[in-house]
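We examine the record.
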Amino acid sequence: MSRFLYSLLFPAFLIASPVHAASIGKNNELVWAGCGITKHAFMTELAKAYEKKSGIKINLQGGGATRGIRDAVKGEINIGGACRTAIDTIEEERGAYQIPVAWDALVVIVHSSNPVDSITFDQLKGIYLGKIKNWKELGGPDRPLELYIRQGKLSGVGRTLRELVFANFEQEFHGKYVEKSTGPLEKGVEENRNGIAVTGVSSAKRRKVKILQLEGHAPTYDNIKSGHYMLYRPLYLVAQKRQISDPRVKEFITFVLSDEGREIIRKMGTVPYADAMSLVMKQVEQYERAAKRGLYN
């Protein structure tokens, strides 16, 4: 079993070797940095609840999934947040312990005034390959279709799209606008009546945008939990061995995975990882198929 599949099934902090803890924040503070979608999905509310419960402040920073993974591995933060798995072939990401916490859905967003309500996988592929360039091809008005994409190929959304939709981590996307982070991408679609993008449902819900159905299914809580909405992926907390052995870090992760933590995640409209374990085996099957196509070594 690959390290990735193992991380889907077993919370990493439970199997970490005990070593001397390296303290980063103050005694009453932990530093978290990483994926903005993860932050919106549950971290902000969990941090508030945990500070009230324990007196320990969670200092939330951004920077994206890549920062969350790599800074956690380097020991520059206590905990990272990621919406993708670490890549073993990249030295800076080796040794990342990833704890799956919740399920996120990738959603297609358009301007709130756009009359288009749904999209198919084939249409989504056509847009990212630069083959669909006008909204009339999707049943909309005769206007140019302007795709927003993330810079590079390592963003959580971009990597997951390449994996689940294209089965090719190196797939080139043909976007009109290339953004460095999720915030500007979402804001661009919010303001541009011709805009379209893919982002996480947890952050999309906070924007004045329209979320399209995909293959006839809306990304509702129940559809994500059941797997009827097909573009889903885990959201992770990330740490390195030294940080996991820090009692403050371990206690926070235990809180996140507890009944109390999961209830906070549910109230945020996000599906806790443990509430939809049937999706784990579905994802294992997805990744086994991907392995046969050469996506994984």
Residues 3-103+233-292 form a domain with the D-Maltodextrin-Binding Protein; domain 2 fold (CATH 3.40.190.10). Confidence is low (pLDDT under 50) at residues 1-7, 9-23. The chain has two domains: 3-103+233-292, 105-226. The first helix runs from residue 3 to 9.
